[in-house]
Amino acid sequence: RLMDARKASELAIARQNTAQQLKEWQVAQSTWQVAINTLKQVPNGTTSYTEAQQLLASYQPKLKEASDRVTKEQTATQSYAQAKKLENQAKTWQQKNQWSQAIASWRSALTHAKKIPAGTTTSSNAEELVNIYTASLKQAEAVITIRGDLDKVCLSSGKVCNYTIKNELVQIRFVPAYERKVRTLGGVSSYSGDYETMYKINRHFATMENALQIISNNSGMRVEVYNSDGQMLAVLVPQ
Q1: Sheet harboring 169-174: ordered strands across?
Q2: Cβ distance 228 to 176 under 8 Å?
Q3: Cα-based distances in Å from 177 to 106, 158, 173
Q4: Residue 166 forms beta bridges with which residues?
Q5: End-to-end C-alpha distance for the chain, whole angstroms
Q6: Is 235 or 21 the better-scoring residue by pLDDT?
Q7: What is the rounded CA–CA span in Å between residue 138 and residue 131?
Q8: Taking a C-beta distance cutoff of 8 angstroms, is the pair 175, 159 a contact?
Q9: Residue 23: pLDDT band with limits 50, 70, 90
Q10: What is the overall mean pLDDT for the chain?
């Protein structure tokens, strides 16, 4: 039994030295456990008992080391899987334009990514995930803020436009009723020489453009403006 325990310990050392994945650490752990269980079977009062107890004292810390690593790898694997699951949920919410839910998912994904212990198999990806999730969360939070600003633009004086937010792009499309109103008012004032109304129309567009530029700057997103027929009128990029 003493010889069997020594053979098991040699095998455990070899497995532990090459272990990387969770299953490999679990095998090393179980091999150390076999060595220890075998030593415990050496009867008291035999010539091998004293040496068995000495080996037992040296093997138990190694078993603990392997067991601790197994626990860390399990935590890392579970946290990584949960983080990726929440990442997919966040992306799905964003595609559905449900940004509050997306923020909650990004926050949870970030929490799980930060739980991945250092020195584990998945820890090399953990830092990258933390950076990605932090940036995605910041962007989603920015979207919530600019939605209020976009509502002010599109709903300031009746229904002016509709907007969609996808990833790093804001698309704005004027509604037909607004376009007809502006065209009619602009045409009449131009024909009649009503320069004050023409000035107000120009100031209205300048104010709208300035508001959209501020939205682009604050969110870091590209803003595209279209007419009701889908023709691009303007592009604003962060400055």
Answers
A1: 161-166, 169-174, 222-226, 232-236
A2: yes
A3: 38, 10, 12
A4: 169
A5: 76
A6: 235
A7: 11
A8: yes
A9: very high
A10: 91
* 44 conformational bin, left if phi > 0, alpha if psi -120 to 50, beta if neither: beta
In the three-class reduction of DSSP (H, G, I as helix; E, B as strand; rest coil), residue 17 is classed as helix
Q: How many CB atoms lie within 10 A of CB 17?
A: 8
Residue 160 CA to residue 157 CA, distance in Å, equals: 7
Among residues 153, 154, 163, which one has the least CA distance to residue 99?
A: 163
CB 29 within 8 A of CB 80: no
pLDDT digit string, tens, across residues 135-185: 999 888 888 888 889 999 998 778 899 998 876 789 999 999 999 988 888
Distance of CA 4 to the CA centre of its chain: 49
Other CB atoms within a 10 A radius of the CB of residue 136 amount to: 21
Look up residue 207 and give its two tokens. Answer: 């104010």
Residue 234 CB contacts under 8 Å (≥ 6 apart), including other chains: 209, 224, 225
Phi, psi of 233 (to 5 degrees): -105, -35
Quickly tell me which residue has 């799980």 as its tokens.
112
Cα separation, 203 vs 63, in Å, equals 77
Q: For residues 161 and 120, what is the distance between their CA atoms, to the nearest angstrom?
A: 51
pLDDT band at 187 (very low <50, low <70, confident <90, very high): confident
* Euclidean distance between CA atoms 223 and 239, whole angstroms: 12
Q: What is the pLDDT of residue 44?
A: 92
**What percent of the chain is modeled with pLDDT above 70?**
100
